[in-house]
Amino acid sequence: MEKIGVIDLGSNSARLVIVNLFADGYFMVVDELKESVRLGQDMERDGFLKPARVAETIKTLKMFHKLCDMSGVTRIIAVATAAVRRAKNQRSFLDEIQASCGIKIHVLSSEEEAVLVYRGVINSMDVPKGLILEIGGGATKIVYYNRRNMLNYASLPFGAVTLTGLFSGDGLKPEEQAAKIEEFFTEHLKQVEWLSEIDPDTQMIGVGGSFRNLFKITKMVKKYPLDNVHNYKMQAEDFTPVYDMIKVLDLDKKKKIKGLSAQRADILPAALAEINAFIKYMHFDSFTLSGAGLREGIMINQALPMTVEKPINDVLGYSLMTLVKYYGCDEKHVEHVVNLSIQLFKQLRVLHKFPRQCLKILKVAAMLHDCGMRIKYYNHQRHSWYMILNSTLYGVSHRDVVLAAFTACCHKKEDVNAYDWARYRDLVGEEDLEIVKKLGVILRIAESMDRAHAGTIKSINCDILGDSVIMKTEVEGDASLEIRDAMTASGEFRKFFHKNLEIL
């Protein structure tokens, strides 16, 4: 295992992410440090990085280097974006950083930055056709992809920090500044000719700190039950009231908004104005937030060099396998339980009548059903429930994550707490309980059929005869333990499938 540090030096903030790279192509973030350095502030006047901003950046990078040293990092990958890219004193700044901090920074071109953002998104989301809007401090990037191929990109030379600086004068009220930014951004969008060629079923994807902050505010307002920004889908009708509330406030009042970072309070209105203009111009009625962007693009490329040429084929499978390895699950047992669960799901379809989408829910639950044992064995299904809900899972919706967590919680017994279920009522309904409980029984039987973790039961063939389901097992060796354990689910099987269970 190798430990690396990834430094992203943006126009607004500097961020260090420490990552464990596993030998077989997986990675896990193990530490993070972020500082608001405002490197791009006041650059629009003469194009130079200001001494005070440079000094703050050097101080921050020295802290980053110290944390890397103490954490056992063997390699640092440092990149800089718009502010440094455009700075007239770029060379002297980079030389000073290397001399004082011992860090060599690679300044990304506009295309390199767009490609890394695209790779972060395409390797973490199951969205076949997307238009990415990434709002940085000093630049705004728009990336269009279809069928997992990047087709076009545009890099506009302004972001939340620079737009705030450009429109903060002239005695304009906050809402007037927002209107001016919308108008300014819209005029630049009109100059991106290929935007008119976007397919109508393309989904908008939002990337960057402003989108993450928008999620935090929305979570507070709506009392949203999950903390994971990745794959959160926001309706335009929910975005508009948040924007309308924030754009009229002065800075002191904005800093008091729950969920809004005080360090971002002054520049968030400019970012929201960009989002609003983009939604209107492109006629989007919703957008999905991505927690993965440039830094994740770098991490994935480091863990899996082949992604430089071709994106990950199975985003969800890769994400699940990362967690299986990180949580120390028995990989052969996990694979066997997944296979048996899929066999049961398909052979019992005439009884449960669930759509194919439910197979994804079952797969997540089956892959991570034992992860709670990382905490302790007893009641580990409850720990698995919590860990699934709080893990970053790629390629799966928030609703499916919730259903998978409750399904995993039922792999030892029917274990759906009414209070816990009610907390997620914005994502699931009472009709979803049937899905959870039936999938839970399927998972319980599949898990029991590998009770000794020996792979004794190779396959299952189900016959539905009258009021009974007869499961015929193909075995190698003595499967009496597995069959006996699986039969303990017969009562719940009868309760939810209305059939008696026999296992041969």
Number of helices: 21
| Structural class assignment | alpha/beta
**End-to-end gap:** 45 Å
Strand content: 15-25%
Mean pLDDT: 94
Shape: elongated
Q: Major sheet: size, sense and barrel closure?
A: 6 strands, mixed
Strand order of the largest sheet: 8-7-6-9-11-10
Helix content: 40-55%
Q: What gyration radius follows from the Cα positions, in whole Å?
A: 26 Å
Low-confidence stretches: none
Give the tally of β-strands: 14
Quick overview of this protein structure:
The chain has 21 helices and 14 strands.
Structural account:
The protein is an alpha/beta fold. It is 47% helix and 18% strand. It has 21 helices and 14 strands. The chain has helices spanning 51-71, 82-86, 90-101, 110-122, 160-166, 174-190, 209-222, 236-247, 251-254, 268-282, 294-303, 315-326, 331-347, 349-352, 357-368, 380-390, 398-409, 418-423, 432-448, 480-487, 490-497, and strands spanning 2-9, 13-21, 27-36, 75-80, 105-107, 129-135, 140-146, 149-156, 203-207, 232-235, 286-290, 457-465, 468-475, 500-503. Strands 8-7-6-9-11-10 form a six-stranded mixed beta sheet, sandwiched between helices. Strands 3-2-1-4-5 form a five-stranded mixed beta sheet, sandwiched between helices. Strand 7 (140-146) and strand 8 (149-156) form a beta hairpin. Helix 4 (110-122) packs across helix 11 (294-303), helix 5 (160-166) packs across helix 10 and helix 16 runs antiparallel to helix 17. It is elongated and about 80 Å long. 44% of the residues are buried. The model has no long low-confidence stretch (mean pLDDT 94).
